[in-house]
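Hi everyone, sorry if this is the wrong subforum. Our group has a chain we'd like a structural model of before ordering constructs, and none of us has done structure prediction before. Sequence below.
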Amino acid sequence: MTKQKPRMRMRQIKFRNELDRDFHRAVRARVAHYFDANGCDIDIDDTSFIRLSPNQPLRRYHRYQHLYAPLMFWMVDIHTVFFHDFAYLFKRHLANMEDIRHPLREYILFFVCKFTYLALMLFIPMALIDLPWWQIGLGWLIMSFVMSTIFISLLIGTHFAEETKFPEVDSEGYLATG
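Answer:
Right subforum, don't worry. Here is the predicted structure as tokens:
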């Protein structure tokens, strides 16, 4: 009896991994976010102020990005919550997905989640904590800066490591596989 339990667990693990593999295959087929590829990496495509790829056009102000990029990186969380998410919700084209349309319930859920975020981060603390509103707002800004710094420090390495390759898509929109 004790030998059967580990076998059952191994079968369950194998079954779970097969489901995960199939799920990831379906997600990759649908979304296909190829890192560091022009036209397929949303981090590169939606950023013109910071040059993350040698394939991006070089602009005059990029020579100063080492000075202004840290300030922009501090704002990633705020930018994502109040701008990027909205831009993605209303985009009709993203990477290899065309004519993106969301059901009404997704729009409603999106706005409910945004309101909940604001309520949890700002409105409820302002109502319950005996501090001036600007101190709570300042605390939220500092928290956002710290979250942004941690997120960027984990993400930015994929664009600036020496081994990073920046493949380009061909005229039909495909990446070379070999």
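For your construct planning: DSSP finds seven helices and no strands in the chain. Confidence is low (pLDDT under 50) at residues 1-20, 22-33.
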